[in-house]
Amino acid sequence: MAAYTGTGQKGGKEMERTGMGKLVMQMAVTIALLGGICAWNLHRADERVAAMLEQGGVQLPVIMYHSILKDEARAGPYVLSPAALEADLDYLQHNGYETVTISELVDFVDGKGDLPAKPVLITFDDGFYNNYLYAYPLLAERDMQAVVSVIGEQTALYTESGQENAYWSYLSAGRLVEMQESGVFEIGNHSYDLHDDSVRKGCLKKRSESVEEYRQMLTDDTHLSQTYLAESGLTPPQCYAYPYGAYSDETEDILKAMGFRCTLTCEERINIISPGDPDSLFLLGRYNRPSGMSTTTFFEKALPGEGS
C-alpha cells in the first residue's frame, strides 16, 4: 500500500492558493509594466510637445458651439443659453485670450503671419439661425471672431423658404453673407448632405463602398456645397468640420486634394500648430460646450494650463 502523502483535499486547496497567488503576482507585475510604459509614453509625449513649442509651435484650443437658445427647457449637450455664451466670451477676454480666424491660422502655418500670445478658435457647427440672433451680436460687441460651419442643403432650403425661427431654422445665404462681410464670421463647410446618419455616419466610408466610390461620393457632396456657397456670394470655405466628427482613412487626402487647409474633429484635446507645418491644421481637436457646466469649470478643461 502506498504511503499517505497528505496531498488530499487540504493539499489541493494549498496548491490552489499557491497557483492563485502566482497569478495575482503575475497580474501585478503586468499592471506595473503597463503603468511604466504608459508613464514613459506620456513623458515622451510631453517631450514632443515641449520640443514643438520651443520650435515656434503654438497651443491652440478650439471651442465648439452649436445651438444658442434662451429657452432653458431646450438646454443640453448641444444647446447653450445666450447668457452662458456671453459669460464664456467675457472669460476668454478677461484671461487674455484672443480669437483667431482660419485665414490667420493658414497664414501662420505658411510662415506669413504671427498669432497672439493666447489664441483661441471659436466654432459653431450646423449653421443655426439662432447663431445670427444671439452669437453674432455678442461677438461683434467684443470685437471677436468665429467660424460657422454650415450644412449646404439646409442653407439652400432656408434661403428658398425665407423662414427664420430661433428654434429650428438654419441660416440663409443672405444672412451668411452679412455675417461674413462684417468680419465677425468666417464660413466653414459641414458637408452638403452628410449630416444624416440614416445612410452613413457623416463622412464615414460604408463597408460596401470601394475606395473609388467613396472618393466620388465625398468629392461630389463637398463640391456641391462649395459651389453653392460661392454662387451665393460667399468665400469658398478653407475649413471642413466633420459631421459627428466621423471620417475614414481616405477622407483627409480627398479634402486636401480639393484645396482645404483645415479640418475639425470632435476629439477633445489641445492642438499645437507650427509655422512651416500646414498639416498641423488638419484633424484639429475641439471641446464641445454643453449646458449644465459653469464657464470656469468648462474652461479649466478646455484651455491649456487653466485647470492646473
Brief description of this entry?
It contains 9 helices and 12 strands.
Walk me through this protein's architecture.
This protein is of the alpha/beta class and 308 residues long. The chain folds into two domains: 54 residues; 244 residues, Glycoside hydrolase/deacetylase (TIM Barrel), CATH 3.20.20.370. Helices cover 44% and strands 14% of the residues. The protein contains nine helices and twelve strands. The strands form four sheets. Strands 2, 5, 6, 7, 8 and 12 form a six-stranded parallel sheet that branches. It has a two-stranded antiparallel sheet with strand order 1-11. Strand 6, helix 4 and strand 7 form a beta-alpha-beta unit. Helix 2 runs parallel beside helix 4. The longest helix has 46 residues. The protein is globular, with a radius of gyration of 26 Å. The N terminus is likely disordered.
Please write the CATH class name of the largest domain. Answer: Alpha Beta
The low-confidence runs, each spanning 5 or more residues with pLDDT under 50, are 1-10, 37-46
Termini separation comes to 75 Å
CATH fold descriptor of the largest domain: TIM Barrel
Task: Report the sheet-strand fraction.
Answer: 5-15%
Global geometry: globular
What's the SSE pattern? HEEEEHEHEHEHHEHEHEEEH
**Average pLDDT level:** 89
Radius of gyration: 26 Å
Estimate the helix proportion, in percent: 40-55%
Brief descriptors of the model:
308 residues, alpha/beta, TIM Barrel, 2 domains, two-stranded antiparallel sheet, globular
